[in-house]
Structures are given as structure tokens and as C-alpha cells.
Amino acid sequence: MAILEFEKPLYEIEEKIKELKKISESSGMDVSDQVELFEKQALEYKNELYSNLTPAQRLQIARHSERPTFLDYVKLMTTDFIELHGDREGTDDRAIIGGVAKMGDQNVMIIGTQKGKSTKENLIYNFGMPQPQGYRKALRLFYHANKFNMPIVTLIDTPGAYPGIKAEETAQGTAIAVNLREMAKLGVPIIAVITGEGCSGGALGLAVADKVLMLEHSYYTVISPEGCASILWRDASKAGVAAEALKITSEDLLGLEIIDGIVKEPLGGAHNDYEMIGKNLQEAILKSINELKGTAPDKLKEERYNKFRRMGVFCQ
Amino acid sequence: MTVKDWFKQRKEMQIARRTQETPVDDSIGKLWVKCYSCDAQLLRKDVEENLEVCPKCGYHFRINARTRIHQLFDEGSFQELFGNITTADPLEFTDTEAYKKRIVQAKAKTNMNEAVVSGVGKIEGHEVAAAVMDFEFMGGSMGSVVGEKVTLAMEEALKRKIPMIAITASGGARMQESILSLMQMAKTSCAVAKLNEAGLLYITVLTEPTFGGVTASFATLGDIIIAEQDARIGFAGRRVIEQTIRQNLPADFQTANYLMKFGQIDMISSRADLKSTIAKLISLHTK
Ligand SMILES: [Zn+2]
User: Which of B98, B138, B157, B180 could form a disulfide with B129 if both were Cys (CB 3.0 to 4.6 A apart)?
Assistant: First the structure.
């Protein structure tokens, strides 16, 4: 498993414990008291470490190369997933994947941005950066869900919508804008979850939802801390400071009433225990769906409108 | 490529570079100004009388919200609304300068409260609700106040059952308000959904420059989208794209003509024609 810089001391303690165990095995010496003490200390250190992470450190967890991806969550949380491809206009963007599935007893439309875990995969999924055609495919699937009265679940993990020539030629801004507007018109429950990176309009384009959840170590922001640092501080190395100032953590956003809930991650981050994060997330999603399921479409839309209508802080 | 084409391309590149490096038209207030496009020395007064368009080459200079309102609305008809809504600093944001201080500076520089003016007014007799953005105020960036005032203008259109006009000029989101500024994209777009459902005409006029979060929300959601001549419009900024793809961009990249070529807008209008075009469109949509 890839070890992050700030996790190194913990890794070293764990290595020491392993070594100690090995020595005791080979020499027959009983060091169990010592091992126990070390393990206790390691756990304390671990708890301490992960409950006091800086936003910049959590950013590394959110971007961890082994963090579960959309397709992992589909596998962990649903059965009978059938992918529905294509925007019907010439493209099947691989950075956004969607399809129908069963989550518990519930039929859902599940759509998300897909990242890769290797360079090869990332080339296929374009590092989770959708083209306009990805947003248009998502829109087609939103309409489909609306037609068949299926709750929509979106899972978001993207560094942003792709900035490129073709993306501009085919109207990246418009594609996102249309999704924002059309999501407001849907009469089915929408649950959006920021699972990793929730960067800018590229994330929001799937997140005009009745309930917006965040995984504990995910982040949600108007601009990446690096981008913000290079524009406002004119120094990309100030990303840590920018991450702090931008208030991007799940706790910050719950406090600002931008999101509706936080899904607890396994100690050290989602990549440490796929089963556990899958279970926690599925529970949270199903709970939200059940809360919303009985609501009439017009009421759902009105409440969704009011939810976003309230956002913003100003003087009057 | 002919020599003529080459000169044309070089000119376009020059304009792209200069307007990029000069975020605000610094010519305002001086007696003489130099045209970005044709280098002509122009009398400030002549430019003003020509709707801030170069009398020599027709290049459209950026204009602020007040000038726009003056040019577009029937004399004395525009009534500003929601001007009492002002900027807060909910995140107590400080980069190299405190956000509070930046706001004070922007107010002093522009004599504006924020980067948008909302209100109602008449265009050749047609009553409309409007939101007019101002690039001079912190690059026309959209924070909570811009989002709120744009939404309120749309809700005013709903209340009065009149068309809505949005005139955009923005570098994108107001980073100092972080997630709150991102949410303004959702808020304004949801308000457009309401206009749609009420069957009200919504016209957007994209002016130099319109980018980022404004492009990816209410700007490109018009039933009819007009780009003003010489405007540059896009989602990602030129520099971001260049850094990402590491190749040179076409000379006409993200210009109004470029957007027209790729079917993203309904039309390009000169500033001189804008008022009558909007008026005509409104009457063509009125029974
Ligand atoms: Zn000129």
C-alpha cells in the first residue's frame, strides 16, 4: 500500500512491531508484553494522527491512488449493475459512467466520475476529468431515471471538468450549466456523494441534489487548492495554506450547511477497508433515499430549489 | 495561408495577448486612448460617443455596468433593485490581502457595491428584468452577492411575468468565497429552471470576457444567447488549457466567432445593434 509522507512514523512503528514478532518467533523469546505495549502505542498514535490531519494531509487521502473508485463502489454497494453507455451524439465519455442497479431492494440510477488506479487506467478514464459529452450522457441518464421513477445516486471524485480544446469547442460550460438547470427539474430523489475530489463546476454538474453527502476525507471546493494558490498567492507551493483558507473539508462544509451529512471512513481513509466504506456509504445513501421516497415530485423540486436558494452569505 | 490571413491572425493574437494582460480597460478617464486592436490614437470623447467602440477599426472595448445600462435601456427607465445587498466575508478569507480589504478597494475603484447591478427597465418600450455584470469589480467574479442578485432579478421577472436579460462579464467564481461561490452556479441555474417552467423569455448577452463559473451556469442557459462582438467566452481560461495540453491554441480560440462556428451561440451582435436586436427578439416572442 502506498504510504503518505505524514504516515511514515506510523509505518515505522508498525514495521518495528513486525520485526519484534519475527525475532520472538525465531528465538523463542517471549516479548508479548512489549509487543502489546507497542501495539497500544501505535493505535493511540494512529488515532491521534488521523484525527488531527491538516486539510492538506486530508487532500492526500482524498487523492490516494488506492482510494475506491466509482466502479469499486458500484461493486461494493449494488447488485445487477448494468452500464448504460453513450451520449447518443457520438461519444461515450469514460470519465463519467452510469447505469441501473439494485441497492438493497431499491432500483437506482447510479452515475459517477471514474478515476483510474494506474497510468493505464487513468488514460482510459482521463483522470476522472469529464468532457462535455460525459455531462450530456449523465443528463440522458437523469431523464431516464426521471421517466422510470428511479432515485438517482451520483458519486463524485473529480479534479474538475477537462480543460481542453475539444472540450471548449463542444461547450464544456454549457454542458455543466444545462445539468445544473435540468437537475432542478427532476421529480425523483437525487443523492450526491463527494467520494474523493469534488472540484469546481465539474463536480457540481452532478451534484444539484436533494441530499449532498461527503465521505469524511473527501473535499469539495470551487477551485483546487493548487489552482487557487497559483492565482491568489501567485505561488502554487502555497496550496496547503489555500486548502486551509478555502474551507474544503467535510466538517467545514457541514458547518456551512452546504452538505447534509458526512460518511465516516475507516481509520486512515477509505482505501484501508473497502468493505467497511462500502457498507457505511450504502447505509447512508439508502437512509437518504428512504427519507425522500414518499415525497411528491413537485414538493421534491420545491424543496431542492429552496435548499440551493438559501446558499450564500451576504449583508442586507 | 495568404499574407492577408497571416496579418489577420497576428492581429488576433495581439489582441488576445493584450486584452489578457490588461484585465481592465485602463483608458477610462484619459483624454486620449490607444486602440488595442488598430493602435490608433483616439479622442476619449469620440470613443465614448461611439458606444466605446473604436471609430477606426470597430473594436469593442470593455464597458462597465453603468455604461451598459445607459446604452441599453430607454432613458430614465432603469430602476436598480436589491442594491442594498452587499458583500460579507463569511470565511474570513485572506490570501496576500484580506478579502475585506479587496472589497473596500474594489468599491473605491468602481464606485459600485458589487460586480452586478440588478433591476427592471425598458428596452424600446419592453419591460424587462435584468442583471448586468461589471468586470471592473473584482473581475466580475461571482460570489454570494452576484448569485443572489442575479437570482433576485430572475424572481422579479417571474413575479412581473416579464422577460429576463442577463449581461455577463466575469472571470469566473469569487475564490475568496470558496464553496459559497460555487453554489451560486447552482442557485442561479435553478432560478433559470423556474423561468423555463413559467415560459418566460430569458436572453443572455455574453460580453468580454465571460468565463468559468458564470459560463458554466446562467450565462449559457439563455433561450437565446447573444455574444457581443469581440467578446471572449469560455469555460477554462486560456492559460489553464495551455498548461494542461501543452500545445498552442488557435488564434481565434474562445472568441465570439469561434463560439459561433461551433454552434454555441445564436448570434453575434455589435454594440450598436444590441438594443434593437433584443427589442426585436422580445416582440417576436410576444403574442
Ligand atoms: Zn481600433
Answer: B157
